[in-house]
Design a protein that fits this description.
Aconitase, Domain 2, 3 domains, 4-stranded parallel sheet, about 15% strand, globular, binds FE3-S4 cluster
């Protein structure tokens, strides 16, 4: 790679141990991907949850913090594995709390904004079109690339914080214009879309695309950002989609032909039957077994989604023999409280949890075997993390299962 004088000096340790290590790691990854240079970034979003990073993650972040590392660009962090304010309510094991605490201390010492949210694009870290950023968290990456038109690969743990500290990332993959064009076309013929359809369509797109860039035709022009968030999360978890173009909706598809004059390698028509088939595949639980926990908020619930739950919950309460947990960012919870949405739901028996989620927290300690969710990502990822089976339903179905009339 061709390095600047400053980068060469960093490699010699002139800017401290954390910077030396960070540049070394960026250069090694860059060389492995055939990158010629490091490019500046304007923001980073890193992973910091013990549930996936384990001891190796703690060691690495502490080493950078002790080496004097400081984020040079605005940097947010994905959800934690512990909601510290509710650790007893959610029965989080003591050792889990201690490990996550160490990660939190290291992250804050490094100058990361302690957002603990997988939707940084709604608060604290909002990139602009065409900006190069270095984000981890597959659903956030899909949103940033697709809906905003910023540029990032699915930055892995380790590389994310090194990019934050140096303000640089090796140029390869989605940072390069020629790698952002579509190669597979999805023609969606559904008529009216429900909320669940966006999650399910995402799962279909992700599974069929693999690592190719999908172009989706047929999404209604008035689609909300919440729905695009769910579409991207489903696509990113069912495949390795980091960027999708939605014709007439996402910015790059509005500015030019997303296939850049080439023909799609494959054209796939998505019908209502395809959605039903995918819903059936995602649900793995025996329909005769009892649902023990219902969860919403993957990606973390937005204020609009919280209000929708509030309206559907009028004159209903959570059944005595089931748990109903909702995950959302702290600022969404606070705003919901200020708007009078949270207290009635808590009184009705819903448990809120902030700064974490079902997938990356210690849900395993509850010993559930059957969970219901309205999220394709949660349904696809949680079973392997927590060894349980899933029923996948829309928000109405989840609420009807978890609650009864007052
Ligand atoms: Fe976010 Fe957790 Fe889902 S980090 S996207 S709520 S798995």
């Amino acid at each position: 790679m061709i390095l600047t004088d400053e980068e060469k000096a960093c490699l010699q340790g002139s800017h401290g141990e954390a910077n030396r290590l960070a540049v070394e790691l960026l250069v090694r990854v860059g060389e492995a991907f055939g990158s010629e240079r490091l490019i500046p970034i304007t923001s980073a979003h890193i992973l910091g949850h013990y549930g996936s990073l384990h001891q190796a993650g703690i060691d690495f972040l502490e080493r950078l913090a002790e080496g004097g590392g400081q984020c040079r660009v605005p940097t947010t962090v994905d959800p934690s594995s512990v909601d510290f304010g509710r650790r007893e309510q959610f029965r989080v094991p003591e050792d889990y709390v201690e490990k996550q605490k160490r990660l939190q201390v290291a992250v804050e010492k490094l100058g990361v904004i302690p957002s603990w949210s997988c939707t940084p694009y709604f608060a604290h870290n909002v990139p602009r079109f065409n900006q190069n950023i270095a984000w981890a968290e597959s659903s956030a990456v899909a949103y940033a690339n697709s809906v905003i038109g910023a540029r990032t690969n699915r930055t892995s743990f380790g590389l994310d914080i090194c990019a934050a500290i140096t303000g640089k990332i090796p140029e390869f993959g989605l940072y390069e214009e020629q790698n952002r064009k579509g190669s597979i076309l999805f023609e969606v013929e559904l008529g009216a879309f429900s909320d669940l359809d966006y999650h399910t369509l995402g799962a279909i797109v992700g599974r069929r695309s693999g690592s190719r860039i999908p172009v989706i035709k047929g999404i209604p022009p008035d689609v909300t950002n919440d729905r695009l968030k769910c579409l991207g999360a489903g696509a990113a978890s069912a495949g390795s989609v980091a960027l999708y173009h939605a014709s007439g909706i996402t910015p790059e598809a509005q500015l030019k032909d997303p296939f850049d004059g080439t023909r799609p390698e494959e054209i796939f028509t998505v019908s209502r039957k395809d959605l039903q088939d995918m819903e059936d595949q995602i649900s793995t639980a025996d329909p005769n077994s009892k649902v023990e926990m219902v969860t919403l908020g993957c990606p973390l619930l937005s204020i609009g989604e919280l209000k929708a739950v509030f309206l559907k919950m009028q004159h209903r309460r959570v059944k005595k023999d089931i748990f109903f947990w909702i995950y959302l960012a702290q600022e969404t919870y606070d705003l919901g409280r200020a708007l009078g949405l949270v207290e009635p739901l808590e009184k009705a028996g819903i448990w809120f949890s902030t700064q974490t989620c079902a997938t990356i927290s210690s849900v395993k300690v509850w010993g559930f075997s059957h969970v219901m969710t309205n999220s394709a990502k949660c349904a696809l990822v949680v079973p392997s993390e927590h060894n349980l089976s899933i029923t996948y339903r829309d928000t109405d179905g989840c609420i009807l299962t978890a609650t009864e009339p007052v």
